[in-house]
Design a protein that fits this description.
This protein has 467 residues and is an alpha+beta fold. It folds into two domains: 237 residues, Adenine-n6-DNA-methyltransferase TaqI, Chain A, domain 2 (Alpha-Beta Complex); 166 residues, DNA methylase specificity domains (Adenine-n6-DNA-methyltransferase TaqI, Chain A, domain 2). Helix content is 31%, strand content 20%. It starts with 6 loop residues before the first strand and ends in a 12-residue tail after the last helix. 33% of the residues are buried.
Length: 467
Amino acid sequence: MKTYPEYKDSNLPWLGRIPTEWNLKRAKWYLKSKKEINTDGSCRDVLSLTLRGVVDNDPDKPEGLVPNDYRSYQIFEKNNLVFKLIDLENYKTSRVGLVHRRGIMSPAYIRVIVDSPDLSPKFYYYFYYSLYLQGVYNKIGAGVRATLSAKRLLDLPIPIPEKQEQDKISFFLDRKLNQIAKFIRNKRRLIQLLQEQKQAIINQAVTRGINPNVRLKPSGVDYLGGIPEHWEVLPIKRALSSMTYGILERARDVGEYRVLGMGHIKDGNVKVENCGRIDNVPFDLILEKDDLLFNRTNSRELVGKVGIFTGDKANKVTFASYLVRMKVNKKVFPRYMNYILNSYNVISVARQNAIPSLHQSNLNATRYGRLLIPLPPKREQKDILAYIETKCSIIDVIIMRAKQEIDLIREYRTRLISDVVTGKIDVRNIPVEPIEESQSDEGLDMVEEEQMQEELENFEEKTYENL
């Protein structure tokens, strides 16, 4: 893409050089922050600032934390900017949004009004969103909770192109980000389909085997159906030598042993990263190679997950009390057991057996150990393992490539927004097709919140390094 003919230095690391004809002024001279409290409670249209932007919320069935009285909330008007700039040490909590209609939101948020006819609210949303993606707010926030006040926010200089140019830039980004969001959504859908294909391969292999001509017999278990006639059906506990609850002591930031929690079991594996720590762990609670862990307490859709630990005692890893360690006996290979317990048939019935409580489901070891599983002779397990891992490795390569493409397009998206709103590239004469009404998803808003959460897992490592 073309650059502008001439540039000048902004003397700001997150802006760098900007086009010579653009002005650079402190935001407070053009924007204002005004808090208007919903004192009489007349406004009942509750909005929420999420990672996917500003969304409508239902005051009768609200998402997230809610106040006792909405009269403490502040009123926002359409095209106001909204900022959540508290607890800035946590990159996942700060965010920026453009308000799509009149409504009320938390009094802790910063409301910024763009009321000058020479300024475009959408352009400055993209500009401030670009600073968010670069981690600018997180670097300059101050105080015990690392906050950025409205005063300090509006002290930051802003670039000011001509209004027509602001509109052109906003229009360009609307279209491009809409295309990028659809690309990401399609790739994520592809990944989901591939993961479902993997699950189908595993489920078929561990419940029917890999011989298409094998004779079947009734398993006597509804969720298993027919199984090869030479296989046995037995409770999970009969394939194990032990089941052990984890430690009760709360993990800290420092300690000799890492403590695994619910979030460390993912895709059938135990991820030993970002763990809390603890000292003085009993010897029998240190994980060994091929130990299996199952999640006995979690949300309904996550309880019952199983992962295999591939390290050894030298890694000094233990596990929290809401996990249960399982050691297999001589009847079964640990990796094979991991596939069985994560298969659709078994994990579905495990979740049905979990006892729901207010915010989670609980599946104790005794109840879990009674669940029935099909088990082939050990020599056949080896052949099934080889089959599963050969088939799934091919799918894993395709999934990895799709994830790499998503990472690259995300990096491109961040760079594109920054380059366009700071004038590094000139989009004034680039033809852009308008977004059809049926296609309009507000670009960035198309990126689902769970996707944005995933995107922010390693956000701190990728922020603007020169601040």
